[in-house]
Amino acid sequence: MFEEEVRRHIHFAPAPSWVKELPFARPDLLDQSRAPWGLYTWLVDDQAKLDTRPHRYNRTIEEVVNLSALDYLANVTLPFNPYYDDLTIHHIRILRGNEVIEVDVERRYFVMRRERSFERLVLDGRWTFAITLPDVRVGDIIDTALTLTGDPACFQGEITMPMPLQSGIYWDRRHVRLLVPPERKLNMKPFPLGWIPPKVSKLEDGYSEITFEDSHVHECDYEYDMPGWVIPARGFYASSIDTWERVGDLMRAGFEGDTDYPQGLLDEIAKIETEHSDVRDRIVAAVRWVQENIRYFAFSFGEGGFVPRSLKEIYGDRIGDCKDVSKTIAAMLTKMGVESYPALVDTRRGHDLTNQPPRLGAFNHCISMCYHDGRTYWFEGTSSVAQGGDLDHLAQYDLGYALILKPGTDLIRMMDRPAKLEYEVREVINLPAKKGEQTVIEIDYVYRGARADAVRRDLRYQSLSSYVEDRCALFSYIYGMNMCAIPQMTDNRRLNEITINTHVTTDNPWQGTGGHKIFFSPESGFDYVLEDPEGRRRFPFHLGDVREGRITTVIKSEYQLDWPLKSKTWDFGGLVLGYTGRKTSQGFEAVREYSVRRTWLSPDEKVALDNAYPEVQDYDRLTVAVSGRKPATWLPSFITRAVVWAGVPVIAVGVWAVLTYLL
Q: Taking every annotated instance into account, which residue ranges of this chain make up the domain DUF3857 (predicted)?
């Protein structure tokens, strides 16, 4: 779309008659503590007329409190999608004391295509309306009002919108007003932290008016490490859809009915069937073919963010987004006689979808799935590397709930899989007590499942030596000068397991001077799941995928090692840590394990983990401490006396001999 056509979707007009324009007069006092970013928000007003082609009005009034916000407020940018949006600017005003300065927006504005997601290989076709306001000063108030009209045609007139009533900054006043036509039913559900009770009234034209009004709205709490499904603000969902089946019917329309397979794709399917007699192997081969041959790139122009392209376009270009590759996998498996469909998921809030109302904006990603031998398998077609493993060992990502795009669909739980051992370290340390002998450390790093796929992905862009370079740097930091041998790797593609072996030799592995010296084992046991203590917490804590890890340390040494032998377990609900130690004929063996049983900890569980942090750390990195011998303070004086008393007779005899000879 060219700029001239984009400008046809930009209009300038007063606010429509259905909008209730709120009066504004600046109070005499402004609380500076509520403007930490240099701006103060007096009003955020959202109004919507939810017709078949919806109208969404927004008015924002913000004051420039100090210079830190001047550039931000003096440059107005409004992104919109001209493929289905019409943007109407009602006014942009500068309020300076009692003076109202109307900005000539129509003369000063410009449009640009910024494509903010291009680095993530996404072209969404959005344009940005921009204007630099003239002569903005500290103390000025910027009053902006606009309306966006339209929705993608594939929504078929259905409405879906989340509406926050709180944000990360302070709002002096918050106003929301929805006009619902009599023929439309609007389903509303508050966010987990609640909402402002709405006022509902019936207008003369039959529309229902739903109003939310609040003042002195404090900024919401936020914790950077909370799960993506946590919404730390008050607000609500509004949707004209009441079942997930309806969502599936709308979204699967673009996936169904494409039976025009390109000949090249049919040839690839035939080749897979010829090379693999087992259906299980055919499924894996089809998934890998897509991962290896369809390069990720998203052309999300217009409805491209919701509707996939045709099989001919995907195969011909050999590029596609998540919808395209999922459609291709499902089409290939269907042609092979395997029941397969694309499925919609949310990578951030997927585990919480059952607590949300059915709505079109509930998903941000598309994958594929199939049924085989009574089991359900899920496939990530956008993987940048062909996944390892047979069908039983192919990594499957648990994204919570999914909506399979088939008739009569509903949300289903993807999987309730137990934690699997995905990362393992086995370190054997030969720690000699004799001087002059080298310390030899042999370490095996074992990666399984998704961790093995991640290693393969990294090794596409660097050598194995470069991949373990950070480990060698760590060894140099701990042990000083050392020799880190060239690593060796074994890749078991069928079991989806990679083992990397490395040797480290050092002449002086000890830390400390004087009376004590300390040896640190190379690998920590719980670093991968431990975070620094925080104290008070309000929201859950994100742990990542369900998984297990194990670090086994064997020390062979003549030193008397005083390590704890009693097994220890810390159970924090979603996370379990364990330690086991035992003496061996050659020294000592310790095993440290962690098991992430769910993807998050509750606030109470995280506080319990924080309280146990000092104790857990004692078992995290194993140490060998050797006390040096205290110097014998009596020894120097004893030697001196011995020399003196033994030397006096010798000297006397020598003097006598000399004198006798001379005389």
A: 56-217
Q: Can you tell me the distance from the alpha carbon of 475 to that of 483, in angstroms, rounded to the nearest whole number?
A: 9
Helix (H, G, I), strand (E, B) or coil at 290: helix
Phi, psi of 292 (to 5 degrees): -85, -25
Q: Where are the domains of the chain?
A: 3-238, 248-413, 436-627, 634-663
Token couple for 190 = 């508050």
CA-CA distance, 379 to 370, in Å (whole number)? 8
**Helices assigned H by DSSP within 405-559:** 450-459, 464-467, 469-479
Find the distance separating the first CA and the last CA of the chain, reported in whole Å: 125
Is the four-CA dihedral 279, 280, 284, 287 of positive or negative sign? positive
Fold exhibited by the domain 248-413: C8orf32 fold (3.10.620)
The amino acid present at 300, given as its one-letter code, is: S
Task: Return the CATH architecture of domain 436-627.
Answer: Sandwich (2.60)
Instruction: Profile the chain (663 residues) by mean pLDDT over runs of 10 residues.
Output: 87 96 92 92 97 96 94 92 92 94 94 75 79 94 96 88 94 97 94 94 95 95 90 95 94 87 96 97 97 87 81 93 94 97 95 92 94 95 92 93 95 89 93 84 94 93 86 78 83 96 85 68 77 83 92 87 84 95 87 93 93 87 65 37 43 46 45
Domain 3-238 -> CATH class: mainly beta
Mutual angle of helices 322-335 and 279-293, in 10-degree steps: 150
DSSP element (H, E) containing 279: helix 279-293
- Is residue 455 a contact partner of residue 447, using CB atoms and an 8 Å limit? yes
Judge contact between 574 and 597, C-beta under 8 A.
yes
Residue tagged 């006096």 (tokens): 648
How many Cβ atoms are within 10 Å of 566's Cβ, its own excluded? 7
Residue 391 is encoded by which pair of tokens?
A: 């069908």
